[in-house]
Design a protein that fits this description.
globular, alpha/beta, Aspartate Aminotransferase, domain 1, Aspartate Aminotransferase, domain 2, five-stranded mixed sheet, 381 residues
């Protein structure tokens, strides 16, 4: 089954009681049992829900995994993965990553004796050198947020396998339409399904997809025991969004290429970060492991002025100033003060995240209108 068919049909069956083609929202907290322990596969809605089950089957198929486990947010999904570790275990993570992921590792799990190291995974020697006997998890984010670096998933996972260390790829920026990390050797894939999977900025959701039944059992136990589950309405909205995933992401990719080209030639822009640009240091890796280059673009305002960046942020009309990404509408944001404010400035600067950096989430609007909107904002400088 090809991807465009999977998003609509994988794991989805008409409702047997009514024939409804859309998966029903099973808005219930519990299920009637014929006798203690005798039920129809569902006993309590924290543990199982038919709407959630349909979504998990669909997600597993999209990422070519054996199981998917859904959570109330992307960070709740990440939290569940980190709960599989023990005090004294260590994590090696991409050094350019979402601020919320950094915060969870350093402000929460570091207190529990689980230490994280942040390294440049494109420097293979540095990466291998950072692995020790306590390393239990490699956390890969690619494309990275917000610098749009690309990590060679296959290469990093091969090193991890040789060292018998588990790997997880945060695939939020790419979506399963653009890359499938499990096919490249990863053990787990994480999504903030709030973003491209949902696609309409109307739901918070997270998911982990795995290829090992053992890992699936661990995460499902944590899902039930800790209880950070999504409600059935949330699962329905993600299922609804997934049906147009391939159409939306491809349109965002097409728009992003044209916008990156426009920004490259603009005299008031210093640097444009987009893996689809041939001069991007990881362009060849992106071309090898991704179907297309994504709908995210970042850039530095010429001169590195925060005041000038602020003028652009306030000067757009179609690009809405907001956190998040991956919706049908275009968004503009300032990572240093918004999504990545929890990362110390010295660490942000090490990866090039300056106070003048602006991040765009390119939507599905007409690209000429989006370019005109940016051009007008840049005239304010």
């Amino acid at each position: 089954m090809k991807f465009g068919t999977k998003v609509i049909h994988a794991g989805i069956e008409p409702d047997p009681s009514t024939g409804a083609i859309m998966t029903p929202i099973f808005q219930t907290s519990t299920y009637v049992q014929t006798a203690p322990g005798k039920h129809k596969g569902y006993e309590y809605a924290r543990t199982q829900n038919p709407t959630r089950s349909a979504l998990e089957k669909n997600l597993a198929a999209l990422e070519n995994g054996t199981d998917a486990i859904c959570f109330s947010s992307g960070l709740a999904a990440m939290d569940a993965i980190l709960k599989t570790l023990n005090p004294g275990d260590e994590i090696i993570s991409t050094n350019d990553l979402y601020g919320g992921s950094y915060r969870l590792m350093t402000k929460i799990y570091d207190r529990f004796g689980i230490k994280s190291h942040f390294v440049d995974m494109n420097n293979t020697k540095e990466f291998e050198k950072s692995i020790n006997n306590n390393t239990k998890l490699i956390w890969i984010e690619t494309p990275t947020n917000p610098m749009l670096n690309i990590v060679d998933i296959k290469k990093i996972c091969k090193i991890a396998q040789d060292k018998k260390v588990l790997t997880c790829v945060d695939n939020t920026f790419a979506s399963p339409y653009l890359q499938t990390p499990l096919n490249l050797g990863a053990d787990m894939v994480l999504h903030s399904a709030t973003k491209y999977l949902g696609g309409h900025s109307d739901v918070i959701h997270g998911a982990v997809i795995v290829k090992s039944k053992e890992i699936a059992q661990q995460l499902r136990f944590i899902q039930n025991a800790a209880g950070a589950i999504p409600g059935p309405q949330d699962c329905f909205l993600i299922l609804r969004g997934i049906k147009t995933l391939h159409l939306r992401v491809q349109r965002s990719c097409d728009n992003a290429k044209k916008i990156a080209k426009f920004l490259q030639t603009h005299p008031k822009i210093d640097n444009v970060y987009y893996p689809g640009i041939k001069t991007h240091p990881n362009h060849k890796i992106a071309k090898k492991q991704m179907k297309d280059f994504g709908g995210m673009v970042s850039f530095d305002v010429a001169g590195g002025s925060y005041k000038d960046a602020l003028k652009i942020l306030k000067g757009t009309h179609l690009f809405s100033l907001a956190e998040s990404l991956g919706g049908v509408e275009s968004l503009i944001g300032h990572p240093a003060s918004m999504t990545h404010a929890s990362i110390p400035k010295k660490d942000r600067l090490k990866v090039g995240l300056t106070d003048s950096l602006i991040r765009l989430s390119i939507g599905v609007e007409d690209v000429d209108d989006l370019i005109n909107d940016l051009d007008e904002a840049l005239r304010n400088l």
